[in-house]
Amino acid sequence: MNLRVFLLCTGLVVTHLLLHVALGLGKAAPDLAIVALLLASRALGSAGGAATGFVLGLLEDAFSVGSFGANVFAMSVTGAVAARTRELFVGDSIPFLAVFLVLGKWGRDLLVWVVSDPAGRVPFNDAALMEGPLLALYAAGAGLLARLLFARGPLSR
What we know:
By secondary structure, this protein is mainly α.
């Protein structure tokens, strides 16, 4: 991982914490932690992506009131799977990055829903078909904007 990717991902995580924890915006703010994880995972590899996902998931679970461990599991799996895409898809074009961010956020949300406590989660149709795609598009839009503004050129080398 080069310095540019590290600074971008660190800035995304700090901004995520400011928006979600300090300001308490919740779903009104994009999920920048998953964007940071997805971008970092492409540069780190499977072990680094899973470790980064574990740390970010633990950070998310520390500030949530839901099922503890759901975010740790989902972020770790997402980080490991996202890192494997570097071997399958070469390059960091804007269309690829948009689809990558949407599918990564949506998949992470589905994993959190699956392993969360059934008593405290919303119905599947609402989580997977209504909220999930919209929140994934929102996070992907914010991630693409951050990527275009702050990290020009290829991210993974």
